[in-house]
Design a protein that fits this description.
alpha+beta, 5-stranded antiparallel β-sheet
Length: 110
């Protein structure tokens, strides 16, 4: 699995908050395979497989309307980078990690 591949699972208030989180990761991972779009879904997913954009100040992805539970899975470097990126963009609490360093669970707060 390349170091840039990352799968993100999001659950929370709705599709708009899921899109905000995905946008926050785009600078670090490039465009995802698609933005969350099913407004009736309780859980949303996005996969990033591209190259990161140029370094620079973080983009303002927008604000969350409610807490969002996020699970990031991928190569250890990608998981660390995603966690760091989300911590810079949102108020973040560590909600756990799987054995090893290929999965992390975070709670993002508005």
């Amino acid at each position: 699995m390349p170091d840039t591949r990352l799968t993100v699972t999001l659950s929370g208030e709705g599709v708009d908050d899921a899109r905000v989180v995905v946008r926050a990761l785009e600078r670090a991972f490039g465009a995802p395979d698609g933005l969350p779009s099913d407004e009736k879904a309780a859980v949303h997913m996005a996969t990033f497989t591209g190259e990161a954009r140029a370094d620079g100040p973080p983009m303002d992805p927008g604000r969350l309307s409610a807490p969002v539970a996020v699970t990031v899975q991928g190569a250890p470097g990608a998981v660390r980078r995603a966690s760091d990126t989300l911590a810079r963009a949102f108020t973040t609490r560590d909600a756990g990690a799987a054995s090893g360093d290929q999965e992390r669970q975070l709670l993002l707060e508005p």
